[in-house]
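User: Hey, quick favor. My workstation is busy. Could you predict this chain's structure for me?
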Amino acid sequence: MNPQVIYNGISSEDMGLTVTKLPDFHRAARRVAQTEIPGRSQPIIQDEGGYEAYQTTMEINANGVPLRDIYEWLRGEGWLISSDEEDYQAYVYLHSQIDDERFRVGDECYDTIKVQMLVEPYLREVGEHAITLTSARTFRGRGHDPALPEITVTGSGDITLMVNGVSVLIDGLNGSITIDSEAGIAYTGSGDSMAWAGEKVTLVDGWPTLKPNRATNLVNWSGNVSRVVIQPKWRYL
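Assistant: No problem, here it is.
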């Protein structure tokens, strides 16, 4: 199979394009502060937590596809899958200028396109499965760093949800509520019916996180809960 990428659900193959250089996904640089001390040969390194986004490039042959169609596809931001790591996806920003170079084969004009992208530091699993619980349970973590999950609780009344000992108090639930640790929000409904519901949620020790690297995660609760659905959002370097 020829190299290809899938960006926001549309593949380069579907577009009729040939990828001549796949984007390189690197292990991102750790975010640290470095302080030089007079008279000391080694700097003091302070870990600030997290990793830096980085730049990478891919190159595409247009194969006669109109440039405007390609520009329409390669814009904005979203998930990108590269055929050399098809089990993982990266969140990328395609806000940089796209360079193209035109060349001629016989009477046909073609273009080589260089696409710069900003890549968020963590890769995520393609087709990651949600974890559905109807009673308290433990499960093994995945990935390399603590995950910031999206947790949907269905039930009624006052509920205390506990994730690895971190408590989330939910007041007067009637139906379902979603606690999204990555976005730092709580909401009910979805799509056009989504409504913010932060007033129903009290965080006792911050947003819930999941332990990586096969560590044991425990999710339990008190109150009238019929189901808890967890989208882990495991994070890989």
